[in-house]
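REQUEST FORM: STRUCTURE PREDICTION
Request ID: SP-0412
Submitted by: Lab K.M.
Chain count: 1
Length (residues): 200
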Amino acid sequence: MSSNRCKLNKDLNSAEFKEYYFLKEELKEFCRNEGLKVSGSKNQLEERIIYYLDTGKSLDDEKPIQDKSNFQKSKSSKTTDFEEIRLDSVLGENFKCSEDKREFFEREIGKGFKFKVKFQKWLKSNPEKTYQDAINAYYDLQNSKEKTEIDKQFQYNQYIRDFFKDNDDKTLKDAIKCWNYKKSLKGHNKYEKSDLDILK
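STATUS: Completed
RESULT:
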């Protein structure tokens, strides 16, 4: 049973990582060992790890470092660039997540704004859209992410419910044993009749 379980390590790619269920403690331990931030929800930890496995970089370190020699120049030009961005401005080809754009989105969305990976992909694949469209897309992605996070938190509860719907003669201990077996396998974590094999 547990021999089939994949150990979380940096040699996995993001696709392999997504095929397994990991406990929050396992995610935190991995982040700690790799020098990544360990705070946040389970979903945030997963997002951080996926980015790290894909790029080898920390998602939280992607903020550009200010070159001191160009500080004055960049400071004055940044204000001009920032003022040029309007809600009806078009994103354009080769969108870059620069500091002036970060400031624009922070002003429109709030200080909690971050260039998350999904939002960056949306920005780069929609060059003809406006900044207003981008703000709408950001909120859509946030709502979808929150739903995913809630869904993941309730995977266990859903599994137990489905288990008893199909096996009202079994005990909670049986259900938990099947759940532990299921989450050690590749693929989804939904209840299937074949999960009962572990009880034989």
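NOTES: DSSP finds nine helices and no strands in the chain.
Reviewed by: T.R.
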